[in-house]
């Protein structure tokens, strides 16, 4: 197992390098870089100019005349050069790329272009919202999905299985953001009821509340976002649990256990459960990371939750490259580590699994 872990860790290096290299090259052709962002604000043209302009000339290989920036006419060329130096575009692209990787190896992510704060501090500041969404949506989906999936497997083909499958499929088919809008209209001061807050993770007077009221206030704000996100999450896990149990129930060892006179409950939870839940439990880290990093962007926008999803989106729009690349690096690294953790969890749950005997 030690050799397998070492191989996986070594393979992370070229994987992350490839992800960062491709992303960095794509960014070179993205229209409206940081220099043009500043020029747009100075000229009063805003996003209209940026949407039609090309990328910063400094991005394509360092340095450039002010005339190469759309909207820069009339600005002092020396000022444009100063902007390029401020954002690092006075250097060749390969110097910037390898310099960025060298800093990232030391976990030095620099400072945001447009916010007076280091990138790492900015990410840490936004993490509570994303952790709240990712953790609770994963726990809730597992608490609902595992018992429901087991019940559906036991009652396979019954009326219970049919109508619950209908609910699961419908829930999976409804986009989370659309359901979120519906919840807002119904329960957040829309056309019907005003029962839940429309924005934020806590109330403005949260620091003045007693700790029981703080907990209530926290979940009061999370109620609608979590409800909107739980649909697709619990649907996937429910069907996975059901199919895993059905596969195990049909195996010979279950028939043997029943022939020995064991009760259905003893067979189900004493023999089937561990084998059937292998893939579900081992997938928990990946499910959490998925909900943590990728599942909350639209929900964060709709409910004005200032988390990592919203941070990444705004950074791309603002061309805040240090934040964009730092979040990409961190997400990629964490994703690869979670993949390794999932494999180790497989072997912990079922020691019969041996990753040493297979190619990575």
UniProtKB/TrEMBL annotation:
Main location: membrane
GO cellular component: plasma membrane
Localization of this protein: Cell inner membrane; Cell membrane
GO biological process, one term: transmembrane transport
Chain ranges passing through the membrane: 9-30, 129-150, 162-188, 218-241, 276-303, 323-349
Gene3D superfamilies according to UniProt: MetI-like (1.10.3720.10)
CDD domains: TM_PBP2
Family of the protein in this entry: Belongs to the binding-protein-dependent transport system permease family.
Protein name according to UniProt: Microcin C ABC transporter permease YejB
């Amino acid at each position: 197992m030690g050799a397998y872990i070492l191989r996986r860790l070594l393979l992370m290096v070229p994987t992350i390098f490839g992800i960062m290299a491709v992303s960095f090259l794509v960014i070179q052709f993205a229209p409206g870089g940081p220099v043009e962002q500043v020029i747009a604000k100075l000229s009063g043209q805003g996003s209209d100019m940026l949407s039609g302009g090309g990328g910063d000339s400094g991005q394509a290989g360092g340095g450039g005349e002010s005339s190469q920036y759309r909207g820069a006419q009339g600005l002092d060329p020396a000022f444009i050069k100063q902007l390029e130096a401020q954002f690092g575009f006075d250097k060749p692209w390969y110097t910037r790329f390898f310099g960025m990787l060298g800093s990232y190896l030391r976990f030095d992510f620099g400072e945001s272009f447009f916010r007076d704060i280091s990138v790492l501090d900015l990410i840490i500041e936004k993490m509570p919202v994303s952790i709240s969404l990712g953790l609770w949506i994963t726990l809730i989906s597992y608490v609902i999905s595992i018992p429901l999936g087991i019940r559906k497997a036991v009652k396979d083909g019954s009326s219970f299985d049919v109508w619950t499958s209908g609910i699961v499929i419908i829930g999976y088919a409804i986009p989370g953001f659309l359901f979120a809008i519906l919840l807002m209209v119904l329960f957040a001061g829309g056309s019907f009821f005003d029962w839940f807050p429309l924005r934020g993770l806590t109330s403005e007077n949260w620091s003045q509340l007693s700790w029981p009221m703080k907990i209530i206030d926290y979940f009061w704000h999370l109620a609608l976002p979590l409800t909107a996100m739980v649909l697709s999450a619990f649907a996937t896990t429910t069907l996975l649990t059901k199919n895993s149990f059905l596969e195990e129930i049909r195996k010979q060892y279950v028939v043997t256990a029943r022939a020995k006179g064991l009760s259905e409950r003893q067979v189900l939870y004493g023999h089937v459960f561990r084998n059937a839940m292998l893939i579900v439990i081992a997938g928990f880290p990946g499910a959490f990371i998925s909900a943590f990093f990728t599942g909350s962007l639209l929900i964060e926008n709709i409910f004005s939750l200032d988390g990592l999803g919203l941070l990444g989106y705004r950074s791309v729009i603002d061309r805040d490259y240090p934040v964009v690349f730092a979040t990409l690096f961190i997400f990629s690294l964490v994703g690869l580590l979670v993949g390794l953790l999932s494999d180790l969890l497989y072997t912990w749950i079922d020691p019969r699994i041996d990753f040493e005997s297979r190619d990575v």
